[in-house]
């Protein structure tokens, strides 16, 4: 198949970028979107041009490294990661716009590569259970109801790709933050830090410059792991609970 | 680069005699070692800096644990975040001898299964320690909030994996690696936020700095600015993973690479058993020349899926039109007691054999069916979906075929490397102060790794083994002179690194890095893949120096070194693959027996099974670097089996 690609090219964080058009043919429908970009890059290198920089690693939809905005949608038309999107979802002759995540808290590094280190700092603010190695009790000492374990797992599935932020009109990181808060707060092991966790992670999120949540819901439609909008409501509940508790102290 | 010696004319040097494993009963050795080890006073730990390269299960766990103990940790990963290390892609599970099923499991049985599964090419002392620690890992991970699968009573669920007859694999749907890695990442993040770990993401180690025979630091490149810098420490820990990507197509992440361990090898660390590579039987077959990597379908699928090919050669009917009596469920036929759950090396080779016979299915005949029709009939579609839903979805997304209706097509692919840097019982390499943990070392899996054991080993090394043994090294080597970037060894290592990068940029040839990577990968897959022969290996060994020569004349790397330059990163990794490939083939050539994942066609039983030759080859082969293209020196570490008596493995 033949495609016209319009790709965001930006030399570095300090240089303005622009969309650049490339015509490309010989695209097989079995290729992944990233393999299509590989094909473009091989041609660019041989023409003596710089290939398009993009983040990627596992190419199995789990590491969360890849992610671009395709025709206005984070990760493109299917509910999956960019590496798991295949070219069979495009038609011969299509024009495809490829852009980096757009969000104030994710500055562009180069071309399609952005800086998502703000996510790491949100986790560092409280997205853990404080249990030094060796200090753990026997695993079966605390049974966890299956429903709670499943709830925790469904939130723990977040891959930290940032599609939720890119899709949000406000550039908010509420879905990302709520996924971790809910994963840990529902478990008995996470209970002792339940209040500090949600308060600290939410304030870290605000400090990083992510926008506020207006429940537009775009995040949940873009999430490749299907983390749902009620996740945000559950975190808000945790936050209110913790705030009230703190004010009573 | 002078290549005037015959690479295959290697010499055998002094054997490795001392592995630092204590004497005495195998079950007491780990306690003995921990007791004999010198400790560092908690108040003094702050004064020690430890470099950790990599943030996967081994590196993430080690960095977090060392920081908790009070050491100053400086950690590196090439990804944009430590959360992305490729351990995250492990699907199936993690083994532990908890015996929660009351099905006859024990530490001794896990030890036995792992030594046998490794085809008697692993050290008993190490494997026993691994089995002992396995139970603590589950405790630790549960306490961290890892959401393992649970039963309705709230207790942990388990399942079975290949090569064993108990149910000891703990899992979190098909995303166990992800959940364990995020547990380690969160523990690490806590230490980063507390200022105990200085984290350098998007920074790649390009060389090791050795001063007075001791590992004292690394050379690393900031992948954003391109700046090459030096970092110093009292000890260096490599947790940089395996070298499967030397084959180009593998289940590894695209950027997983061998540079850290290969550069350490060049600086004096022996490289052990490089020919022990694992080929995973259940991967999605390649769909064309554009293929950039291969995707694994978890081994857990073999619990319920049945593997078959048509009985007739060249049968191109759709699977549904092939009647039951014209199908060959070859694993169930050849190995009735383990059936579809034989170990990986055996399942892979059997798939290759039926495809070589012309009975493979799908494009090019490079595939076999993994069929869930019986399981769906027996358990219902919902139950199958509950167990394997995410894997079925992934399969359908990649192939556009619905595995609930059409059997999956699978084919073996490179997945894991049992070989790696040689380490002693303390996980220390032959360079004092340099440690290797997780897949980067060679120690625990022998010639074949059992399913769900990589996660176990990575976390055992990172959480428990290294943090104990490194104390001993640091306590015994307390006061190093302070060194900095002006030290001649640091200056030399930086200059060599910069030279290499500048040369890569200067060639300005007519071939892309990927074209060379594919070429070396295809060569290895053909001659050093699932079946190896002397003739093929010699052919590969003749060809590799030619490719290397061509590489330095024709490589084209656009851009500069002072920016994010992914072509330069790739090309620089290929420089090391082009040397590692040669050692891999030489090791495979020298080991004329078959064992585990290493199958020499010249050494097989009448039934076509791998034939070990213990009298000649019951040793780990530790290779010492002698220069690019120069014959390395072989050091043998004899393996002794006092507890698990070597037998020809039988899964029939």
From TrEMBL, chain A:
Keyword terms, alphabetized: Iron, Iron-sulfur, Metal-binding
Cofactor: [3Fe-4S] cluster; [2Fe-2S] cluster
Protein family according to the UniProt entry: Belongs to the succinate dehydrogenase/fumarate reductase iron-sulfur protein family.
Lineage: Bacteria, Bacillati, Actinomycetota, Actinomycetes, Kitasatosporales
Domain 2Fe-2S ferredoxin-type: start-end pairs: 18-102
Pfam name, any one: Fer2_3
Positions of the 4Fe-4S ferredoxin-type domain: 149-179
UniProt superkingdom: Bacteria
PROSITE patterns in the cross-refs: 2FE2S_FER_1, 2FE2S_FER_2, 4FE4S_FER_1, 4FE4S_FER_2
Gene source species: Streptomyces chryseus
Identification of the protein by name: Succinate dehydrogenase
InterPro entries per the UniProt record, alphabetical: 2Fe-2S_ferredoxin-like_sf, 2Fe-2S_ferredoxin-type, 2Fe2S_fd_BS, 4Fe4S_Fe-S-bd, 4Fe4S_Fe_S_CS, Beta-grasp_dom_sf, Helical_ferredxn, SDH/FRD_Iron-Sulfur
TrEMBL record, chain B:
Residues of the Fumarate reductase/succinate dehydrogenase flavoprotein-like C-terminal domain: 517-651
Pfam families for the chain: FAD_binding_2 (PF00890), Succ_DH_flav_C (PF02910)
InterPro entries the UniProt entry points to: FAD-dep_OxRdtase_2_FAD-bd (IPR003953), FAD/NAD-bd_sf (IPR036188), Fum_R/Succ_DH_flav-like_C_sf (IPR037099), Fum_Rdtase/Succ_DH_flav-like_C (IPR015939), SdhA/FrdA/AprA (IPR030664), Succ_DH/Fum_Rdt_flav_su (IPR011280), Succ_DH/fumarate_Rdtase_cat_sf (IPR027477)
Residues annotated as domain FAD-dependent oxidoreductase 2 FAD-binding: 50-455
Keyword annotations: Flavoprotein, Oxidoreductase
Highest taxon listed in the record's lineage: Bacteria
Protein name: Succinate dehydrogenase flavoprotein subunit
Originating species: Streptomyces chryseus
Gene: sdhA
